[in-house]
Amino acid sequence: MPFLLYPDPGPVEETLNRLVQMPPVAPAADLLASLSYSLLYVACLPLTVSGLVLRAGHQYARLLLPWGGGNTPPGQEAIVITGCDSGFGYSTALELAHRGHTVFALCLSEESSQQLKAAAKEHNLVNLVRVICDVTRDSDVDAAVAVVDRWLSSGNEPSKPRGARRVRALVNNAGRGTPGLVDLLSLSEYEEDMSVNFFGVVRTTKAFLNLLKRSAQAAGPVPRILNIASMSGLNVVPGASAYVASKHAVVGFSKSIRIELAYSRISVSAICPTFHRTPLLRGLQAKFDLMWQLAGPAKRQEYGEAAHTELKQCAQDLYRACAWDPQNVTNAIVRGCVDPWAPDPVVRVGMDAKYVLGGVVAFFPEWLELWLTGTWAFWSYKGPRGAVPGAIAKGWLADDF
Length: 401
Hints:
By secondary structure, this protein is α/β, with parallel strands linked by helices. The protein has a domain at about 70-275 and about 325-365: NAD(P)-binding Rossmann-like Domain (Rossmann fold, 3-Layer(aba) Sandwich). About 55% of the residues lie in helices and about 10% in strands. The chain has 15 helices and 7 strands. The chain has helices at about 10-20, 25-45, 45-65, 85-100, 110-120, 140-155, 185-215, 240-260, 280, 285-295, 295-305, 305-320, 325-340, 350-355, 365-375; strands spanning about 75-80, 100-105, 130, 165-170, 225-230, 265-275, 345-350. It has a 7-stranded parallel β-sheet, sandwiched between helices. The two termini are about 45 Å apart.
């Protein structure tokens, strides 16, 4: 074990560790480290460019070269998708069923399930199986696992090739988003976002893990878990801290278990889109209205009606200027499910996700990233009643004010 090769930190290391965190030394140490990183980056630039070229070549090779690991007919492979009531889950379920896969579409409500049934019937998609499932309830998730397990078992009868049926992918798509300022949201609203967006992902992942492990023993592409997160799981958006926290948890969970489950031949990826035109985003203004009503008269008095109007304007500006065609996310999820090669650990969807937030902004110091984010997202918001005008623009995020 590599850890055994190194002794515990000695007095010299402990002293250095203490010094670089002391106020008189920390700024100089940080500056020296930043300069060292910059020089190292320049020195390693040829290696970095070579790595990028090799990566691009590898991706093109995966597109052009045939998969040699064996394949199962699409109808014999199950793809389980949560949150198929609307949005990405709804469109992905229909698209995968259209491609011939057996899709188990988990819906929260019976009404949504019936709408999905009508859409499937219209396109003659008999391979789409609807299951009512609340991902926050153990009993619902266990029942969904039982439905998929029965389908797998029915394809493994003695008269049929053993192991003919398998689970190709689990797509943890169910989610919710609660906008609002931390001062105006209740603790229960944070708990509800975490319950669906994070613990729902953990619950369904653990519940379906044995079926995925069994499928991993058969020939064919590796089974995979796709957790639909968000760029809010890698960056931040003010006015949505409950949602942002839950998506950060999903990304961290996905990266961690990708390493753990590699030993079982199961891939795990986090799909991280920026804003796209979905029912969740379209409903932001109505959710701000609800937040405002639930905040109570004291908080409404403290913030003033103007603050509420400005926050709604921010949401409207966001939807009008920054929301992409949701089909791009559906396409990314479908590719993640059907491509023989497992997707990357984190899949960014959207030009802004790939080249701005995941590109140039990644090299900014944190205070600058937060300043730019606050200025961009809260362009129309002037703060609560009595707030310092232009607090973000004046650079308060960079100072210990």
